[in-house]
Design goal:
Layout (H helix, E strand, L loop, with lengths): L6 H14 L3 H21 L5 H24 L3 H14 L9 H13 L5 H12 L5 H14 L1
């Protein structure tokens, strides 16, 4: 039974498909992401796991979300839409999102253990969800739980 291709391989396949279709926008997008994956591999000096690749994709999406905000504030909806389309193209490569209730339960467990400092709670909770949940979402849940408690 053949295993499914790894995430970096799927990105490369997507890049090659875009090249064949002569879709310049997708070639540029996936070329940039594949390049970022290779740079990360060089930086770490080892082959990347799917979790490492997910981290690179999340960083790419985060950068584009910041661009959407900046372009929106500058009144450049055309550029904001372009960045949003790139986010939409990258999101299918991310694993399914973790249920916020699962994150909340982990945060409550840490808070119940006596930790009340935002930074310390984040430090204990983040490793459990690394590569599986957006840090912003986790931070928001931690803040809500600390205020409620």
């Amino acid at each position: 039974m053949a295993s499914s291709p790894d995430l970096a391989g799927r990105l490369t396949t997507e890049l090659n498909n875009a090249r064949r279709a002569q879709d310049k926008t997708r070639v540029l997008l996936f070329g940039t992401v594949v390049s970022a994956v290779k740079n990360r591999e060089i930086e770490l000096g080892r082959a990347l796991t799917d979790d490492d690749v997910v981290e690179v994709i999340r960083k790419s999406i985060k950068t584009r979300r910041e661009s959407v905000d900046q372009y929106g504030k500058a009144g450049r909806q055309d550029l904001a839409d372009k960045e949003q389309a790139e986010i939409t193209a990258l999101e299918p490569f991310l694993p399914a999102a973790i249920d916020p209730a699962e994150i909340r339960a982990a945060v409550r467990e840490v808070v119940a253990g006596g930790t009340r400092d935002l930074g310390k709670v984040m430090g204990l909770v983040m490793p459990k969800f690394k590569g599986k949940a957006d840090g912003k979402v986790i931070n928001q849940i931690v803040r809500e739980e600390l205020q409620a408690g």
